[in-house]
Each structure stands twice: as structure tokens, then as C-alpha cells.
Design a protein that fits this description.
This protein is of the alpha/beta class and about 425 residues long. It has 2 domains: about 170 residues, Aspartate Aminotransferase, domain 1, CATH 3.90.1150; about 250 residues, Aspartate Aminotransferase, domain 2. It is built from 14 helices and 16 strands. The strands form 4 sheets. It has a 7-stranded mixed β-sheet with strand order 4-12-11-10-9-5-8, sandwiched between helices. A 4-stranded mixed β-sheet has the order 1-2-3-15. Helix 3 packs parallel to helix 10, helix 6 packs parallel to helix 7 and helix 11 packs parallel to helix 14. The protein is globular, with a radius of gyration of 21 Å.
């Protein structure tokens, strides 16, 4: 495929945008080469500036559950834009989408909309600290909760030690309040709680990790976190920016039958427009301003275009009783098809999947946490990525990112994807 126009655009972008991109993973640093520039998308396909068409397994990093340019969403945004793009005042549609979201998701009474998943997680942590009167949090290595300072923390010398900033600009003072644990390891969480008695406000987790590849929770792990939180006066925060409305209508809480104290949303809840949200019970949400003392605000929060897109998306999901069955069947078909080929060709690999989230790791062992994800033979991933790209398949340009399937994918698309994997498999030996 030709990438002449994309290459020229990237060169121009680097002159005026740091690294030529507005989010680092888009720069293809993990795979090498020059990023392709999207021009349009429809259904299961994205088209670049050179006119190439790709079967899309990123789907804007998850929001496009029903495919790109889903007509009802597009029409809803157009209609709302005719009435004004922003008011800085309450609008009726904010209440409508809030009522719908609360009805779809277990264990929440109230929801507040913000402008990104980062904002949602940042606000959830502030709420947890204000509610409990405690300052420290536990997060898990490899889980991504946005680029707020409290989350940009790398592991220390051991699982039960303080983390250290992994980005300049994050202070040591911030880092000391963030404790690091290994995903799927309850023993480390217990050790952290024991070492910091009555100091931990919250445990925040991606209930299905999506930023070290797709990594599901081990049986009993989320249940164990819930028990530890109950016993120690700690709030359990589910970062469902990825999993919310994707792994089930009610997200991971519904899928695994686990009640979180605070839930964070993004991606799908905005229908593809920039939206985040956090939600909880009446008791906890009553602490938020203007009713309570914990301040949180946003000039463009509840933007009417974003609310219209999100409301339309959630309505479509809520009214399609077979949606998640179709998504699971398609993802399972893809997983089995790719796995059978790679196994037959003698490629070392393992796959992880939860619903329509999916990833491939080039290693024999199970991938259960960030350490095991890092042991994959990532010499092969850039080859895999670029060969897929050349053959019209667009996957995440990093081995540490999940694939996201959309309902717009046909079985012909899946068969083509499987056929491409077979075609390029000899290059992975």
C-alpha cells in the first residue's frame, strides 16, 4: 500500500504538534514506521488519506461499538448542532442520558459527566479521598487510568513499596500516595493494606485490563478486592472507560457480578465524541459540589453534541437484546480462527479475550499481568502489525493495547482477517 499522503501529513504535523500527534501511541513508536492519517470511516472500515481501506480493530480505541458513522448517532449530532453547540447551561438531554445510564448499570444512583476518561478517573479519586478522609490509593501496574499525575506512577523496588514517578512533572509527593500492586495478585494488595493501616482511600482497577493487552481478572480476584475493601473501609473504583457498555450492557459489574463503589466511564458513553463520566450511590455522590464539599467542575461538561451522541448510542445498545451475543460470537470466531492458524504454523502465541476485547501475545505462557505481558517476544509484533496493515487490517500499533471489535464487522471481514494472518504467519517464525 502507498502511504505518500500520510507521510507528508506526518511531516507537516511534526512542525506544529509535539511528535506530530495529540496522543503518543498514534506516532507508531511501538511498531516503527510512519502513522497513517485517517480521512473517513464507515461501518467496519477506516479509510486513510491515500485512499486505502482497512478493516478496523481499533474503533477509535473502543467507542465505535456499533461501527463508524453509525447513522442514528450522526443524525442526532447534526440535529443538536442546529440548535447550538454549547451553552454552559443545563440542558434536558443531560438528564435523559443520565437516567438511561443509571437504568442500564448496576449499583449506581447518580452520574456526573465530564470530558474524558482521564477526568472521570481523576474525579473519582478525589471523591474517594474526600468521602473517606484518607489520601492513599492502590493502583495496578500496567493499568491505565489516564494521564493525571496520581496515575503516572511506576513500580518501586518491590510490589509492596511506594512507586516512583514515571514522567517528569509528577512530584515525589504525589507518588508517595500511590501504591502499586500486581494485577491478579491479592497477596500484594493485602500486604499494602497491612503496611498502610487506615490510610488507603480507594483501590482503582480496570476490571478487565486493556493497556497491557487484554487481560481478564483471575477467578476470585475481583471478589477478593471487594472483600478487602469491605473489611478495611476502602472504596473500590472500577475504571470502566473501556469495559463500560462493551463487555456487557451493565459493564464489568454485570459481567462478573461485582459491585464497585464508584464507576468511571468514557468511550462508548460518548458515542465517539469526547465524554467521560463517574457514578456512584446517592450517599457517595452527595459529597460532590454543589451539594457537598468536594469540588469538581467543567465548562464543557455535558456538552449537548456529546450528550446527543451518547444518548443515541446507549439507546441503541439498550434496545438490542442480541447485541452482546453477536459481539461475543464474532470475537470468538476471530479468536479461534487466528489461534488455529498460528498453532498449525508453529508460532509461539497466546490470546486473551473478554467479549469483544481481544489481544495476541507472542509467547507460550499465559499473560496474567504486566510482568508476564512484558515477557512476550515483541520482535514479532512490529512485523505482525505492518504486515496486517499492508493487507488492509488495522490493529493497535502497540503490543500493549487491546483490539476492539464492532458489531459492524461481517463474517466476511473476519474471514479476510484470518486469511491475512495465515498469509503472513511464516514471517512470525
Amino acid at each position: 500500500m502507498l502511504y505518500k499522503r500520510s507521510s507528508a501529513l506526518f511531516k507537516d504535523a511534526q512542525e506544529v504538534i509535539p511528535g506530530g500527534v495529540n496522543s503518543p501511541v498514534r506516532a507508531f513508536k511501538g511498531v516503527g514506521g510512519t502513522p497513517i492519517f485517517a480521512k473517513s470511516a464507515k461501518g467496519a472500515y477506516v479509510y486513510d488519506e491515500d485512499g486505502n481501506r482497512y478493516i478496523d480493530y481499533i474503533n477509535s480505541w473502543g467507542p465505535m461499538l456499533l461501527g463508524h458513522a453509525f447513522k442514528p448517532v450522526v443524525e442526532a449530532v447534526k440535529a443538536k448542532a442546529e440548535s447550538g453547540t454549547s451553552f454552559g447551561m443545563p440542558t434536558a438531554i443531560e438528564t435523559e442520558i443520565a437516567e438511561l445510564a443509571v437504568s442500564m448499570v448496576p449499583n449506581i444512583d447518580k452520574i456526573r459527566f465530564v470530558n474524558s476518561g482521564t477526568e472521570a478517573c481523576m474525579s473519582a479519586i478525589r471523591l474517594a479521598r474526600g468521602f473517606t478522609g484518607k489520601e492513599k490509593i492502590i493502583k495496578f501496574s500496567g493499568c491505565y487510568h489516564g494521564h493525571s499525575d496520581a496515575f503516572l506512577i511506576a513500580a518501586g523496588s518491590g510490589g509492596a513499596t511506594f512507586g516512583t514517578p514515571n514522567s517528569p512533572g509528577v512530584t515525589q509527593g504525589t507518588a508517595k500516595d500511590t501504591l502499586l500492586a500486581d494485577y491478579n495478585n491479592l497477596q500484594i494488595v493485602e500486604a499494602l493494606i497491612t503496611a498502610n493501616p487506615n490510610e488507603i482511600a480507594a483501590i482503582i482497577i480496570e476490571p478487565v485490563a486493556g493497556n497491557m493487552g487484554c487481560i481478564p481478572p483471575k477467578y476470585g480476584f475481583l471478589e477478593g478486592l471487594r472483600t478487602l475493601c469491605n473489611s478495611n473501609g476502602i472504596l473500590l473504583i472500577f475504571d470502566e472507560v473501556m469495559t463500560g457498555f462493551r463487555v456487557a450492557k451493565g459493564g464489568a459489574q454485570e459481567l462478573y457480578g461485582i459491585s464497585a463503589d464508584i464507576v468511571c466511564f468514557g468511550k462508548i458513553i460518548g458515542g465517539g465524541l469526547p465524554v467521560g463520566a463517574f457514578a456512584s450511590t446517592n450517599n457517595i455522590m452527595s459529597y460532590l459540589s454543589p451539594n457537598g464539599p468536594i469540588y469538581q467542575a467543567g465548562t464543557l461538561s455535558g456538552n449537548p453534541l456529546a450528550m446527543a451522541a451518547g444518548f443515541c448510542m446507549l439507546n441503541a445498545i439498550d434496545n438490542d437484546s442480541k447485541l452482546y451475543q453477536r459481539l461475543d460470537e464474532k470475537a470468538n470466531y476471530l479468536d479461534i480462527g487466528i489461534s488455529e492458524i498460528l498453532k498449525r504454523k508453529g508460532v509461539k502465541f497466546t490470546t486473551n479475550r473478554v467479549g469483544s476485547m481481544f489481544s495476541i501475545h507472542f509467547m507460550d505462557d499465559n499473560v496474567i499481568d504486566f510482568d508476564s505481558a512484558k515477557k512476550a517476544d515483541n520482535r514479532f509484533f512490529p512485523i505482525f502489525f505492518h504486515e496486517m496493515l499492508k493487507n488492509g487490517i488495522y490493529i493497535a500499533p502497540s503490543s500493549y493495547e487491546s483490539w476492539f471489535l464492532s458489531d459492524a464487522l461481517t463474517y466476511e471481514d473476519l474471514d479476510k482477517t484470518i486469511a491475512v494472518v495465515e498469509k503472513i504467519s511464516t514471517k512470525l517464525l
